[in-house]
Amino acid sequence: MSDLAGKTERINDILEAFMGIPEEKCQGRDLLEQLIITILSQNTTDVNCFRAFETLAKRFRGEDGAVDWQGVADAPQADVADAIRVGGLGNQKSERIRNILQWVRREYGTYTIDPVCQMPPHDAIQRFTALKGIGVKTISIVLCFCCGTDIFPVDTHVNRICHRLGLVDEKASAEKTFWHMQDLVPPGNSFSLHLNMVRFGRRVCRARYPECGACPLTRECVWYAQNR
């Protein structure tokens, strides 16, 4: 085990003791729904993301109560943009969502991306990131949360914490951090470490004014050693 892998394992153990072991995996949720929610979450808050999805689902609800993805794909872009406007970037996201839905229909013959769970993760990432609006974070969240794939998604919070802890270069992009961290996270702990880092980043290790006095990771933290 490398020094950084050992450090990552210690960090995971400390965060599980401090934050708890997450249990609320969304395995069983419709994968396409999760993909669209993750796209809506880009550059906005969780509250506005879910408000946008709820409005979209209400406006395009099918007879079975689920979202009518065919209706979304065929609707004028302005109608979709209006439905998701509360989430921000309505025009951009609506265009991308409609294009992605049309691609899904062509690729799989229906509005499902369930086969992604049977794909090798690298192949799934390569295929879906070729679509505008889907980055490594978006598809890795679907794989981790819905398929149960042992893959470690990296968002803004996770990237910031990995920088501060010295797990990656301080200038590494979220995508570079993603690829680097896959070999460091203890097997079977990707979901737990990801979600705990996200929560920890919101509550303690914030971008501005981090609560270092309440942090259990100061002994592992390069940023703390340099700035205390």
UniProtKB/TrEMBL annotation:
Name this polypeptide is given: HhH-GPD domain-containing protein
Pfam families documented for this protein: HhH-GPD
Organism: Desulfonema ishimotonii
Cross-referenced InterPro entries: DNA_glycosylase, Endonuclease3_FeS-loop_motif, HhH-GPD_domain, HhH_base_excis_C
Domain HhH-GPD, chain residue ranges per copy: 40-203
GO terms of biological process kind: base-excision repair
Signal peptide: none
The protein's required cofactors: [4Fe-4S] cluster
Entry GO MF terms: 4 iron, 4 sulfur cluster binding; catalytic activity, acting on DNA; hydrolase activity; metal ion binding
Keywords: Iron, Iron-sulfur, Metal-binding
Keyword Nucleotidyltransferase attached: no
Keyword presence, Metal-binding: yes
